[in-house]
Amino acid sequence: MVAAGLGLLAFLGLTGYALDQAFADTALSSQRERLQTYLQAYIARSEVTRANRILVDDEPPEPRFAQPGDSGLYAGVRGEGFGWESPSAMGRELPFDLDLDRGEVRFDGPLPSSVGPIYRLGMGVNWEVGADQSIDFTFFVAESANTVERQIAVFRRTLWAYLGGAGVLLLILQIVMLRWSLRPLRRVVADLGRVERGETDRLEDAYPRELAVLTDNLNGFIESEREHLKRYRNTLGDLAHSLKTPLAVLRSRLESGEDTAPLREDVGQQVQRMDEIVAYQLSRAATSGHQRFAAPIEITGHAEELVRGLEKVYASKGAYCEFELDPQARFHGETGDLLELMGNLVENAFKWAKQRVLLTTRALPGTAGRRPGLLLAVDDDGPGIPEEKIASLLQRGVRGDERVQGHGIGLAIVLDIVKAYRGQLTVTRSEELGGSRFEVVIPPAG
């Protein structure tokens, strides 16, 4: 409001100043034209006598020229050895002392005089009195500067009164418009307060389209935070529940008083199981999921680093990984989610591959205002997965082959991450390598 008021004040001030200067110039121009008319009238009503003197008609063009005293209009003529003044100029000290050339016109002022400041108009006249003889005269008319100043003063009072009134009205209108236009923002603030107090779950009011993007993003952010909080709570509850049984077994075995060797074996088994439970729940809790404002993560470097480590682990079988990586592909989320997602898929492919693994990434272009999506696929040349076993294989704790080392939770974690990012996991036969193809599609998002 202060900025708007200052801007309005500056605008009206500059406008008033420009109008004031324009009126002052117009008033001076009008005065000059008026004096020019008086001067031409005096010249038309004058004649030269035989004594080479100017004879001016007694009837002036304006009655004030005939009024003695401070009438405000004055006239005079100056020539060589000759002078004439209107009745209003008699006894006054007026600056009628110029000698102007023939046809020369001069307008100046305000000039000091005994009657106060005046504007003076002078014109040089050459009067022919014979075949080879002429006389030079200078005609003057003058008007008190108070006349123009009064006009300007009246105009200024009127101008600033109207501009002041217009400024007040515009300021009131601006206040009303600003309050009206900012009312949706106050509604957003009030709705956010209700969300903070737990009175509502989201911003549900109908907002103008200028704020719709903001409120949609806020709703997405609120939902994302609620999902994270719910995931953390569920993970802690699941972890506590999952650890109850191993701890109970340990307690009963310790209290049984059996021999050291069987006890050590049972304790080892339960500790290993607890380790698996903790690892799984921590991986699950680390899944952040879809976020509106997640920074894009470049995939190529993480993929190469991950594959180098796995190629060392499976060096005995000679397995290696090929890349078809799109340099424009980006993962919008947490780095831990990307590593968990890509690591589980690639490691699973190394486990089942005979020798070759193929990692593919491709950016999925987004529409206007939406960030790009991602396609991430892992192929292997292993035996593949029968279609009827795909659904069960994605369940927690289920392994494709009990003889292959693992806990059966890797693909379940992958599925949880994909769902958290509102994506889709598809398991099919690899057309290129002949084994399995795990394809993750994370769609473009706003």
Describe the 3D structure.
Residues 238-446 form the Histidine kinase domain. Keywords: ATP-binding, Kinase, Membrane, Nucleotide-binding, Phosphoprotein, Transferase, Transmembrane, Transmembrane helix, Two-component regulatory system. It is found in: Membrane. It is a single chain. With 446 residues, the chain is α+β, with helices and mostly antiparallel strands. It has three domains: 2-151, Beta-Lactamase, CATH 3.30.450; 212-282, no CATH class; 292-442, Histidine kinase-like ATPase, C-terminal domain (Heat Shock Protein 90, 2-Layer Sandwich), CATH 3.30.565.10. Helices cover 48% and strands 20% of the residues. It has helices at 2-44, 145-196, 209-256, 260-285, 300-313, 335-352, 390-393, 410-420; strands at 46-48, 54-56, 73-79, 82-85, 105-111, 118-128, 134-144, 296-298, 320-325, 330-332, 356-364, 373-380, 424-429, 436-442. It is rod-shaped. Mean pLDDT is 80; it is low at 396-408.
Structural class: alpha+beta
- Tell me the overall shape: rod-shaped
CATH topology of the largest domain, what is it called? Heat Shock Protein 90
Domain module count:
3
Distance between the termini: 34 Å
Low-confidence stretches: 396-408
Q: How many strands, which pairing sense, and closed or not: the largest β-sheet?
A: 5 strands, antiparallel
**Compute the gyration radius: what is it?**
50 Å
Q: Residue-averaged pLDDT, rounded?
A: 80
CATH architecture descriptor text of the largest domain: 2-Layer Sandwich
* E-strand count: 14
Which sequence of strands runs across the widest sheet?
Answer: 4-3-7-6-5
